[in-house]
Amino acid sequence: MEDIKIVLDSFRFKGELIKCEPFGSGHINSTFLAEYIEDGKVRRYVVQRVNTNVFRDIDGLMDNIFAVTSFLRGVIKENGGNPNRETLHFIKTFDGKNYYRSENGDCFRAYRFVDNSKSFDSCDSAEVFGKSGTAFGRFQRYLSDFPATSLNETIPDFHNTISRFENEFIPALEKDAVGRAEACRDEIEFVIARKNDCSRFVNLIKEGKLPIRVTHNDTKLNNVIFDEDTNDAICVIDLDTVMPGLALYDFGDSIRFGANTAAEDEKDISKVKINLDYFKAYAQGFLSEAGKSFNQCEIDNLAFSAKLMTFECGMRFLTDYLNGDTYFRIAYPEHNLVRARSQFALVADMEKHMDEMEKIIANIEY
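^ thats the sequence. predicted structure below, dont judge the formating
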C-alpha cells in the first residue's frame, strides 16, 4: 500500500501532522485517523483507502458523496445547525480531486473527524434504536429536495426485488451448481410462494406512486454517530452506497436487522421475532423527521417494506447458498442457508403481525 505520509500530503489538511494510526473496525475499507495541530488546536481527519474491488465505480461513488454532503451542509446551515457535526465534511486533494489515486492504483479519500462523538455496534434499547431512526429520517427530510436521479446508480438494481428473483434466484435454482437444491426445498418454496411481493414496489414506481429519493442503503446502527455527552444522534455516516432509490428501502432494512430479536444467522429460528417496541420506536423517530416529506403511498407501505427488505435479504442468502457461496463470506458450509432460514422466520413473524405494524404506523403523529 502507498506510504501513508504521501497520501496525507496530497490532501488540503490544516496544521502540522502529529500522528496517523489505523482506526475503526470496518471490514471493507482500510481506515486511518490523522491528527494535526494548528495554532494550538488539534484537528483530526479520517483517511480511508477505498476497496475498489467492492466499489468499482470510484468516480461515481465519490461524485455522489460530494454532491450529497455539499447539499446537506447548505440545508443544515439554513436550519441553524452545525454542518461540521451534522454531516461529513469531505476534503479535496491539492489538485482539486475528490480522492487521491496512488501510482499503484490505490484510492484514498478524507473527511473531518467529528469530535466528541461515539457509535454503537449493537442496539440494546428501543430508545437508542429510535434515535437512529431520527437520524435517518432527518437524512431523508434534508435531502427531500435533492434531485435524486442526478446521482450515479453505483449498484444497479440493488433493491429491485423482482430482478433479484427472476435474474438471480431462479437461474441459481435451475442451475443448482453444487447440488444443494434438494436440501432446501422448504426455503425454495417459501420464496416462490412470495413472488408477487417482489414486484410491488417496482410496479408502484412505474405507476408514479412512489418517488425516487436519495437513499443510504446501509442503515445499520453503527452508521449513525451520537453525541458523547447527550447521546443524541448527530449524523449519518458511511455514504458509499448513497444513490437513487426508495425511502422505503432504508426504513425496511433498518427494521430488518434492528428490530429482530435474534442475530441474522441465528440457528434456532424459534428465537427469531419482530420486536414491536423497537419497530414503534424507530418508526416514531423516522417519521418525526421525515413524515411530512412523504406521500401517502410511502406511509402506507412502510410496514410492508420491513417484510420485503427482510425477504429480499433472505432470498439473496439462499441464492448464494445455491450458487456455492460465491458472494457472502461464510464461517461454515451451511452458513448462508442458516441466514436465509433466519430471515424467512422473521418474514413469517412479520406477516403474523402486519396488522399491528400497520396500526403502529397509522397512529404515529408527525
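The radius of gyration is 21 Å.
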